[in-house]
Write a structure and sequence with these properties.
17% strand, three-stranded mixed beta sheet, two-stranded antiparallel sheet, single chain, 136 residues, 4 helices, globular
């Protein structure tokens, strides 16, 4: 009888642990490390608007890249110099697309009709797809 009670207690504790673990799972963190002025703010508006509609699916952190904290964050991922935008998902800015190609969320996003020097290689859809993979 004692062995059965011990077994049942252990099973109940295991199930509670599993339930608590999934309830305590942290959402992916999106860090927007960017300059706080135009044209950067306009370029990031679609991403920020989309993130705002996602409820608590993601933890969003904003850092002004032109502050000591922003400069430190750039250096922590191996970047320096003039980087107007850096998007980190769980601390990484390089990600693999579904087609196998690699994308880096650094500098401006690819914006239709953007002036030269402001059109980048990544899109808001790339960030959305990367985040969708994280919450599956």
């Amino acid at each position: 009888m004692s062995t059965r009670r011990t077994f049942l207690t252990a099973m109940a504790a295991s199930l509670l642990g599993l339930a608590a673990g999934s309830a305590l799972a942290t959402p992916p963190t999106v860090e927007i490390v960017a300059m706080a002025h135009p044209p950067v703010q306009a370029a990031l508006a679609p991403l920020r608007q989309w993130l705002a509609t996602q409820g608590g699916k993601f933890k969003v952190v904003e850092v002004n890249v032109e502050t000591p904290l922003g400069e430190k964050r750039l250096k922590s991922v191996g970047l320096d110099g003039h980087v107007p935008v850096l998007i980190l998902i769980d601390g990484q800015y390089r990600h693999r697309r579904k087609d196998g190609s690699q994308v880096a969320f650094v500098n401006f996003p690819a914006i239709k009709d953007a002036p030269p020097g402001v059109r980048g290689e990544w899109t808001t859809a790339d960030v959305q797809a990367t985040l969708a993979e994280r919450i599956k």
